[in-house]
Design goal:
The chain is α+β, with helices and mostly antiparallel strands and 384 residues long. The protein has ten helices and ten strands. Helix 3 runs antiparallel to helix 4, helix 3 packs across helix 6 and helix 3 runs antiparallel to helix 7. It is globular and about 80 Å long.
């Protein structure tokens, strides 16, 4: 079953949003992309720009200040990623960290956090991964001990995106380690809570302007009313979050791929070799055709997955895995080919395709590796 048709009003609203985003990307984001990558500094100016233009809360429900559209959200992430994958992560991580509250928060929690996250008054992050628990998320070791009206959290999280610039962080911890996945719970931590500490800063191949940190929970004491859902529901909340955050990663990957193809195509039209523009060389034309075909196929898959998230269907796990797998692999292939098309220039930092190639790699890893996506897809087809 395909996702339902959209209203004319929704389509018009989306067009207005995307026109705004394209202008912002052209005038503000693209000119900063190389500098952000070179310095590795978080682009606070870009985050503020997105907040002022209402781009942080697009997938949030309308009653909490959002637009209520996952499809528009992935298109926005795609547009920003064409120029700067780091900047796109500002929008994508805001969705990632807000999703557990949307999925499992009570009304008081939603009212307290979602409007501020939608407006950008508050920034969020998501802490699931641990030193011994990446793809094997159920193997987490962080604990949360109940003490009256409080929980005390202890443990270490790694590779946590944007936590250094966040106000809150959704933390997953074991409330009953004897139960395995059924013993995990989810919590809203404030980054200024006593015992919530930032550890090592990671230095990365790509997305360099997005800070990635270790988080150390050292007797981090938080009120019990900041637990999301019931005790033991944490693993379900984490997986439901990833189902709807994977299209955001796919959109980032797709945008990177399209940005690389666009730049390479312009280069081929301008560069002359053997007495004619490279665009006239048939072998290179075939490469461009293959790149475009893969991008277009990935885009259709992504938009269908996002539409199904909007429809709230039962198959978002499968579609989220499909689009993340396809878009991530396409991004890596297309950016690699873009570097090849530019030859020696493609390898130089003066041109953006080498940055795009470095940025693309992470889309095959975070929010579940490509191997995990294949397992999810195979289980849909073959059963567990």
């Amino acid at each position: 079953m395909l996702a339902p048709e959209r209203s004319a009003e929704a389509i018009a609203t989306e067009k207005m949003v995307l026109d705004t985003v394209r202008a912002l990307v052209r005038d503000k984001v693209a000119p900063r992309a190389a500098q952000i990558d070179a310095t590795g500094e978080y682009p606070k100016d870009i985050a503020d720009l997105f907040a002022r233009n209402g781009l942080l809360g697009i997938p949030f429900p309308e009653e909490y200040g959002g637009l209520g559209s996952f499809l528009t959200y992935v298109k926005v992430v795609e547009e920003v990623s064409k120029a700067c994958a780091t900047s796109a992560l500002i929008i994508a991580v805001q969705e990632l960290g807000a999703l557990p509250i949307m999925i499992a928060g009570n009304e008081a929690q939603k009212r307290a956090y979602l409007p501020k996250l939608a407006s950008g008054e508050m920034m969020t992050s998501y802490a699931l991964t641990e030193p011994t628990s990446g793809s094997d998320a159920a193997n987490m070791r962080t604990t949360a001990r109940r003490e009256g009206d409080w929980y005390v959290l202890n443990g270490t999280k790694v590779f946590i995106t944007n936590v250094a610039v966040a106000d809150i962080c959704i933390v997953f911890a074991m409330t009953d380690p004897t139960l395995g996945p059924k013993g995990a719970s989810a919590f809203i931590c404030h980054t200024d809570d006593p015992g919530f500490k930032l550890g090592k800063v990671e230095h990365k191949m790509g997305i360099r302007g997005s800070p990635t940190n270790e988080v150390i929970l050292d007797n981090c004491r938080i009120p019990a009313d900041r637990r999301l859902g019931e005790e033991g529901e944490g693993f379900r909340i984490a997986m439901a979050t990833l189902d709807k955050s994977r299209p955001g990663v796919a959109a980032q990957a797709l945008g990177i791929a399209q940005g690389a193809l666009d730049f390479a195509a312009r280069y081929l039209q301008e560069r002359v070799a053997f007495g004619k523009p490279l665009a006239k060389q048939q072998g290179l034309q075939w490469m461009v055709a293959d790149m475009d075909c893969e991008i277009q196929a990935a885009r259709l898959l992504l938009y269908e997955a996002a539409s199904r998230c909007d429809a709230g269907g039962p198959d978002v796990t499968y579609w989220g895995a499909l689009c993340k797998l396809k878009c991530g692999d396409v991004a890596m292939r297309v950016t690699t080919d873009a570097v090849q098309l530019l030859g020696g220039y493609g390898y130089m930092t003066e041109y953006p395709v080498e940055r795009m190639m470095r940025d693309a790699k992470i889309t095959q890893i975070y929010e579940g590796t490509q191997q995990i996506q294949r397992i999810v897809i195979a289980r849909k087809i073959l059963g567990k």
